[in-house]
Specification:
The chain contains two helices and no strands. With 97 residues, it is an all-alpha fold.
Length: 97
């Protein structure tokens, strides 16, 4: 009597192929996620520097604005345009009746 036994290694080989395929997919996903993370870090660094530059420009513009609206510079501007400062203004009121 001949006993025929199926190939017992077929299940192990299938498992090895499945696990190696899974390892390949996980490795590829890890590389993709890492490259995206590095790219996002570089973008964040660039945007942070841009924000700092904008803060500096904003501070400079505020300094210029406050220098232009300083009371002494406004008085010089008014004197240059021929305006006269009235110390005791007299107001004329008109009734609506």
């Amino acid at each position: 009597m001949t006993v025929i036994q199926p190939n017992k290694d077929k299940g192990v080989i299938g498992l090895i192929i499945f696990l190696s395929g899974l390892l390949t997919v996980v490795s590829a996903l890890t590389i993709i996620v890492y490259s995206k993370t590095v790219s996002l870090r570089q973008d964040i660094t660039g945007l942070t520097q841009s924000i700092q530059t904008e803060h500096v420009q904003n501070a400079e513009l505020k300094d210029k604005f406050f220098a232009l609206t300083d009371p002494s510079s406004l008085q010089q501007l008014a004197a240059k345009d021929g305006f006269v400062r009235v110390v005791n203004p007299q107001w004329a009121f008109v009734s609506r009746s």
